[in-house]
Give the backbone structure.
Amino acid sequence: MGQVIGKGRIHADAIPFINLEPDRVEKLWSHYKLHSDGFALDPDALQHVLKIIYEDDEAFEQKCRALFAKLDTDRNDLIDALECLATLASASGMKPQRKLTFVFDLYDFSESGELLLDEVTLLLKSTVTGLCKISEGESIPSLKEFEDLARLALKLEPSKDGKAVRDVTSTISRAQFVAYAVANPTISSWLNHYDDLTAPVAVSTEFGLQLLPVSDEYDLYKRKGAFEPRPGLNEAPCLAKYAALTPKVPEGEEFVPRTATDASLELDYVFGFGAPGSRGSAAYTTGDDVAFHAAELAILRSSGDDGVSQQFVRAHDATVTALAVSSDGATVATGQRGDSRIVVWSSSTQSVLGVLKSHTGAVSLLAFSEDGKLASIDSNGGLCVWEDMKRVASASLTTPALGLCWTQTGFVTCSEEGVLFWTRHRGKYVSRCGLNGPAEAYTGCVTLPSGDVLTTTGGGGFVVWRGRNYLRSVDGAHDNAIADLSLVSGEIPLLATCEGSKVKIWKAAELEVVMQLDLTTIPAIGAATTVSLHKSGSKVLVGTSERELYELSALGEGALEPKDEEEGGPTEEVPVGELLNTIAIGPSGSGITDFSSASTKVATLDADGIGRDGTVVVLDLEAKSIVGREVVIGGTSCCLSPDGSQVLVGKENGSGLVFGIADGIMTQAGVLTPPEPEP
């Protein structure tokens, strides 16, 4: 049972019963206890129970029967009464903690204020199942997922054979259940998903570049090529911190004063990735090389017998916001904010092939055609087509585009308002809307080997078009808006898609899932925003909203070929994805707000990263690797020990947490408490 993001989309038949006032839900529970004979309701019984909240509504009977039809998925003219009540309460206007105590009381059959393991499982299963039934695009998790959450709630350990321990004595109290549900990221995400719901008017994916303001100091640096002198240490407001961090010179050793940075230093390695709100920020080029962007750099990562190396294209002077690779992997295009230039460069030599200027906003999308043309879109809706490093066409979009791909006759753009098919007519590209397609937000597009166009939707589905005519839909490909997709052609064309913590690989022709990867097993912190499948299908790049870039194993050789069953055993299973490389992890919020160095390590703190918590990352500069990462709520500063084995994280309340660093893991080793103020 994975986490959900955004707000649930409620089916029209259930909308009259969402956001009920808390007192109406309380009346509903009291009315049910007084007038119901059992745990099953037929249409008339449901109407009798619900009449307390719709006494003066003339269309009450019709609304009740429509709601009954959504909950009666097995069509036996009976629904689970407690599932119905738990669903209405969870989608009501109650405060989240009252929702938890309400559903707790529903399943407290003994009225003891405590629940057994089976009762917690039933509570979770019934509530989530009911919510999924009245929602659009939600799939019901498996029973095992509910059982796992229930065992965690009661702090039960699995048996040695991996099966659940049968427990009929352990219980959890109401207060303990509320505390567990609020702290558990999966349950709390479902709570938020159905909290403060409104009737859907249009689907918003919340995709798009997040253009953070550039400081005046940095603008001055860009113009002058140097920063203004900073205040001396004696004038610094954080004198105490720097004094405390000043290294003590051992007795008998000579003090070596710090000197200015060596101006001859050369850039050797970059740990960052992506830009706020960017998608599709990394891709394979030729062989196993990977192109990606970070800050004002376009980067090519190579690996070989001598280890991992990075080469840099330094032709940008502002944050790089978009990237595309040609079909043969030989050419890369990267676009930026600032003057909105596009730099076209060679993946083999990293030499600049051309600099294209025409856009007025940050470049948000880039796409190469099979014959080498380049299409580009900026954040202001400007669209350009380039051929032989010259602009050959331009247009303006009224809605920010979220997807761009070339077709056999032109190209396609998609947005939250629909899909546009562009063809060349008398030297210009003209657009026409897709016909008869679902009223959806469209988040991405790709041209299949058949020539049909596949678009992804804000509801997590696929829509396939032939020409500009709607052909078919695949609902529930993902649970929520699909962030990115990647196609590789071959004997068996493959498609990779990503959403939330899930990456799926499909047979492109049949749209049949071949395998699914779960980023929570890495574990990744952010939601997937970038996916790029290797042409062999053996591995896949996945980038996230928290500036992480990973390489995961995908399909082994011959995994898609039919296998004969061996005598005395089953056929070989498709391999499961595993982490191959952590390519990059960068600051996830507005940037690094504090750092500390010792030995060969550097610790960085991003104080307003995930959920505005402090994200601490420890890097080993010699090994060029990330050796630890931890989210510290309220973190404001960090300091490494001299040998780099520990990091102290200061918190906004004046306390500090000490973490040990070993084997790629940060483990809390102590707590520092601030002294009591003097009277």
